[in-house]
């Protein structure tokens, strides 16, 4: 029932660009030989502005990315205070459309409220807004930078809960050849590798990953029936990246990514999956007039079969959801003096997609349904950082023209005759948002910071047009949804009592007006609606210490989040799927080169499945472990342990019908690194 979209015109984009450009570095060699000797190819964007710490930044380095117990990107991100997915399950055992990520308990549905960028490119699915987590392999990355609070710069619309920036690893970081293969105690396997040769003054990276396995039981023992099955899964991804100078101060970056991710959830036949092909071209200039120009295209698809929990027959087959995303940005940093970093830019995004579904009666196809539309966003922004001795000031403003068009819902019978044909009104609006902050280097080891910001998020095509069922609840679409608007404030202090120790404390107050939530209509029906607001206030603490061969890191967040909806039954209650408490702590020991022993403790507090707080997801604490032990030559033994105490992690609870997260899992395998 799965359909894969063919978009060779997109997926071959990086190869076409390389073939047309040839080796631009050699074209400049004769004219600028001496200058070319000084060229350093980084593969990253422009330097981070000096006032970025005003917005509470936390970074995850490559060592931590390579030492996750699950080998998944969401595992690494879970160490950031306030980070959460819509559900507690990872990308091996969750519906891809539920893989939205957010920060600071500003969730309430499965859409991402955090902007996720890979080398500057937005990664959210054009239709659903979820992040293709299985395609973002941590071993391909150099680092992750998480910035809390509303965004204002490039692609800032949508960053109501912050920005997560993923930076790909360079050839120097990867080495010429890097690979690993592991198997766990259930028979799941993981195989990945990269080849990263230098090409002239630049480099290329070819990468691949393949994960598959029988999975684990997500259904509790006492709720299993003959139709119940383990959450088997199979996914693969492949990437190509090419970085080269085209002038002494100008760098070309070309990237392509293809992936396919499939799994079965709860019942036999309840198959779901997503696939995609992405391509981007980026040109970065680091001369006196700095610039960053980027263009990208995305083609994604999604399929899902819903199986009845009473008859165990299909009730709906979302056989395909082809969606296309495209966009670009141009940022200019003119030379305005050593004390200023001025950013002027524009960006544009478009998302178009439709869901194609078969409806069923008594397990037999009874009709067809098609729904979807187009979203657009054009943004203009300006931001300046001003350094005045020990004080750094920052301020930015952004204007967005958002538009929703082409909205439709068609139903037809088996013969293809239309039984309903709805066309929804178009929407468009200009919105202005901004942010400002200050960092004061009060003492040699203490920084004090404060910030305020506003931002918006456009409803996704999924929220506008797609109705779905997760037994026994049906969630209805709403084509009348409007933009969410954020207003937030925060303040904090960073203290470095020792050169290798950093302690950070942040207090925040964020309010998302017209927040889109899944609102309960009756016992089996919810609808996406704009509620008055989600208001989140809280405190975040993080610590990091590098004490010789021992490293310690941890985070703790407490968030008091509530829905503001006067006159509604859920007024004053916590948004669904949001805990008050979340904590993570990691200790690692590196006794010698290539050795790495680490343990990580995660805790997630009580959450609720629904907006009325009737179905609880009890608190859960898990312990993970990782070990890399060098063997002969370039080989190392890798051991990983997930949820070693086999804690019960409830990921879904609908009237007592439950799903569980990852049980105790032990992995073993080999890693090879050739420099």
CATH class: Mainly Beta
Instruction: Indicate the percent of residues in helices.
Output: under 10%
Beta content comes to over 45%
Q: What is the averaged pLDDT score?
A: 91
CATH architectural grouping: Beta Barrel
pLDDT below 50 for ≥5 consecutive residues: which ranges? 1-37
**C-alpha-based Rg, rounded:** 24 Å
Q: Quote the distance from N terminus to C terminus.
A: 44 Å
How many DSSP E strands? 40
Q: Give the overall shape.
A: globular
Domain count: the total is 1
Per CATH, what is the topology? Answer: Maltoporin, Chain A
Q: What class, by secondary structure content? A: mainly beta
CATH superfamily: TonB-dependent receptor, beta-barrel domain
- Please give the largest β-sheet: 25 strands, antiparallel
Count of DSSP H/I helices: 8
Oligomerization status of the protein chains: single chain
Overview of the molecule:
- The protein is mainly beta and 675 residues long.
- It has one domain: Maltoporin, Chain A, CATH 2.40.170.20.
- It contains 8 helices and 40 strands.
- The strands form 6 sheets. It has a 25-stranded antiparallel sheet that branches. Strands 1-6-7-4-5 form a 5-stranded mixed sheet. The chain has a 4-stranded mixed sheet with strand order 24-25-29-28.
- It is globular, with a radius of gyration of 24 Å.
